[in-house]
Amino acid sequence: MVRAKAKDAKFIGSSIGGAHIIVRNTLNGHILAEGETTGSTGNTDLIMRSPHERYTQLSDNDTAGFLAVVDIDEPTFVQIEVISPINKRNAQIHASTQIWLIPGKDILGDGIVLEIPGFIIDILEPNTHQYIPLETVITSGINIKANIVMMCGCPIQKDGLWDSNLMEVRAVVQKDGEAYTDVLLDNPGQNIFEGNLAVKESGYYQIMVYAYNSKTGNTGVDKINYVVRD
Description:
The protein has helices spanning 44-49, 134-137; strands spanning 2-6, 20-25, 31-36, 76-84, 93-101, 112-116, 119-125, 131-133, 142-150, 167-175, 178-184, 186-189, 192-197, 203-213, 219-229. By secondary structure, it is mainly beta. The protein has two domains: 2-116, Immunoglobulin-like (Sandwich); 119-229, Immunoglobulin-like. The longest helix has 6 residues, at 44-49. The chain is elongated and about 70 Å long.
């Protein structure tokens, strides 16, 4: 059993598209098993709210994982690779570990758990390569909106279990390839972060939104380009 678990959050499963798992023979690179984690993100109370003693199992029968059935006839040293989340390339983390597999000796329960740090960020406004007339934004500015979730898809909000008050979310703006300004984004509702960018000139703009939690070390980035024209 192989599982991917978001740092400071839950397991990565079907709700976010899963994590891609590869079990590879380290000697010759041959892939012994490959597939995606499926299932639920797990029991929130058990994973996030309960103290964990040694040998505490965090997963149950519904918790996301990939059961790798490996055909070997002698002990084999393998590399286990995780690419997660598989459907969000801008947020993908590659993690790996190595272990001896022994014929007939199953590794079940929680199994091999690889930690996936970070946030998934999607900039919603403005749109990629959007052309924006200067006259429409010179007084009102441009609304910057991003959707941010944990790597398992778990929700972020003020005073929630994943508390946005602990996060710094900022839009760093370039104009014509040069530093322009930055905008601190607020969290008015679940997963949504917003701010307003004052714009006085036409040009080629780039917005990079980052999220940072100093308590956990989780980070995430998304980036888009758009055009303000006369």
